[in-house]
């Protein structure tokens, strides 16, 4: 009960009356107002009460200002006035006003005077996101605009907080359009886009305030061009047009792979392959086509003694596309399982199948060779392998065997002429049915022997 003594209560009552008196006589100095730009150094003169009131002066609020009690001048203090901190909620139209209280003598009036904190451009614009992503379909027409939600903020007011936007490094592909007071920032497409040519654009969106010394902020604007199904499959130059396979190829052997491409992406680029309905029954029987990979495989073991050519017309199908087509000619080579013969017609002197030739004779015709066999030898040719002094020149389906220079008995008494059967696309000399025949020429002796072997 110590606070409730009669003396204390009398004291409190007096103070209350005094405050009431002050309140009643309080003067709000509507005509006396001061202003100071924010963020001023300490000790800057803000104004003076001396023109309106008599000394001495006592400032009741001393946070941001101190007052000379004699002159009534008041100054900034160590504690800087930050407009954005003092008036965080102000709007463009409202000023940031701080009311200060002072007691002026001799009457002891409590007066209140406003100090307007003026804005300075001490805040740069700010983007919440340093990267802004926008997706634009590639078939968008020139002139289409897209709203950019990510606008910059500037905590200053007036021109210091008004923002202007521009693009950098857009390459003329995009421009900006700013509309309304809000404002709405629109990205405008300026040239035709093609995802297959360029699927991403990166540029800088710059926001600059309108202060005397403008401040700016930059966000990276990334435009991703999204795919539209505007391309159809086509067969690539690498896709085979003709292949040759041996007549003894095994079932499931990979014959060829057709390759088509579609420059679009994802489902828009999906391709399925199919055989044309016009492909012959024989080809359909022999070959299968994988609709996804384009692999053409044998459906069965081949045992073909005859040359055969089969034409495969293959389609590449894409969504909403007319099919592209290609033709693959598959040549089947016959299996060489027949004994072949080389018929020899001697021109030069011969004894027991052996050519006999005097030494030092100029190039001389020795024999006519002819390949004989069934149709499986069609397309085969005879050649001499290795460096020997003989030539074999084709003559109307036959071959003329000649010496290419004079032979020297002392250097070599017997010559072997290795004659090899060759096919255009497949060499048969390496085992597996390949065959060589060699003749022996003796420059002085008598033995032209005929020998035959199946492999080298
Ligand atoms: Ca400011
Ligand atoms: Ca600013
Ligand atoms: Ca497509
Ligand atoms: Ca496309």
Automatic annotation (TrEMBL):
Keyword vocabulary terms for this entry: Calcium, Cell adhesion, Cell membrane, Glycoprotein, Membrane, Repeat, Signal, Transmembrane, Transmembrane helix
Pfam families documented for this protein: Cadherin, Cadherin_2
Ranges annotated as spanning the membrane: none
Cellular component GO terms held in the UniProt record: plasma membrane
Keyword DNA-binding: no
Membrane topology listed for this record: Single-pass type I membrane protein
Gene3D superfamilies referenced in this protein's UniProt entry, alphabetically: Cadherins
GO MF term list: calcium ion binding
Domain of life of the organism encoding this protein: Eukaryota
GO-annotated biological processes: anatomical structure morphogenesis; homophilic cell adhesion via plasma membrane adhesion molecules
Record's keyword annotation contains Protein transport: no
Signal peptide: 1-29
Domain Cadherin as annotated: residue spans: 57-127, 128-235, 237-365
Compartment(s): Cell membrane
Alphabetized InterPro entries for the sequence: Cadherin-like_dom, Cadherin-like_sf, Cadherin_CS, Cadherin_N, Protocadherin/Cadherin-CA
PANTHER family: CADHERIN-87A (PTHR24028), PROTOCADHERIN 20 (PTHR24028:SF276)
UniProt-recorded name of the protein: Protocadherin 20
Source organism of the structure: Echeneis naucrates
Source organism phylogeny: Eukaryota, Metazoa, Chordata, Craniata, Vertebrata
Gene label: pcdh20l
């Amino acid at each position: 009960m110590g606070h409730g003594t009669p003396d204390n209560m009398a004291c409190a009552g007096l103070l209350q009356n005094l405050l009431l008196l002050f309140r009643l006589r309080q003067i709000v100095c509507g005509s006396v107002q001061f202003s100071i730009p924010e963020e001023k150094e300490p000790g800057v003169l803000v104004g003076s009460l001396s023109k309106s009131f008599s000394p001495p002066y006592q400032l009741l609020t001393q946070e941001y200002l101190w007052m000379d009690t004699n002159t009534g001048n008041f100054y900034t203090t160590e504690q800087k006035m930050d407009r954005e901190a003092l008036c965080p909620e102000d709007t463009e139209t409202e000023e940031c006003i701080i009311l200060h209280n002072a007691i002026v003598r001799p009457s002891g009036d409590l007066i209140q005077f406003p100090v307007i904190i003026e804005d300075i451009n001490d805040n740069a614009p700010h983007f919440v996101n340093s990267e802004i992503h926008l997706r634009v379909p590639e078939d968008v027409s020139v002139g289409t605009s897209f709203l950019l939600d990510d606008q910059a903020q500037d905590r200053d007011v007036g021109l210091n907080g008004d923002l202007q936007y521009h693009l950098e490094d857009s390459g003329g592909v995009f421009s900006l359009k700013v509309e309304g007071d809000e404002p709405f920032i629109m990205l405008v497409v300026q040239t035709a886009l093609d995802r297959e040519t360029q699927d991403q654009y990166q540029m800088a969106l710059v926001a600059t305030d309108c202060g005397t010394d403008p401040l700016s902020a930059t966000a990276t604007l990334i435009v991703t061009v999204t795919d539209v199904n505007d391309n159809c499959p086509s067969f690539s130059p690498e896709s085979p047009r003709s292949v040759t396979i041996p007549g003894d190829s095994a079932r499931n052997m990979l014959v060829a792979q057709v390759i088509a491409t579609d420059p679009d992406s994802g489902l828009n680029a999906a391709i399925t392959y199919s055989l044309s309905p016009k492909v012959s029954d024989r080809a359909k029987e022999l070959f299968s086509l994988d609709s996804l990979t384009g692999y053409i495989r044998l459906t069965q073991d081949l045992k073909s003694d005859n040359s055969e050519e089969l034409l495969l017309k293959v389609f590449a199908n894409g969504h909403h596309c007319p099919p592209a087509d290609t033709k693959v000619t598959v040549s089947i080579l016959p299996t060489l399982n027949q004994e072949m013969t080389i018929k020899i017609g001697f021109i030069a002197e011969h004894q027991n199948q052996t050519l006999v030739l005097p030494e030092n004779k100029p190039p001389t015709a020795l024999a006519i060779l002819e390949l004989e066999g069934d149709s499986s030898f069609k397309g085969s040719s005879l050649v001499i392998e290795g460096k020997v002094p003989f030539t074999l020149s084709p003559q109307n389906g036959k071959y003329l065997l000649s010496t290419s220079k004079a032979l020297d008995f002392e250097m070599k008494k017997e010559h072997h002429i290795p004659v090899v059967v060759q096919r255009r696309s497949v060499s048969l000399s390496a085992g597996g049915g390949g065959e060589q025949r060699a003749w022996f020429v003796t420059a002085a002796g008598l033995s032209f022997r005929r020998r035959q072997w199946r492999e080298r």
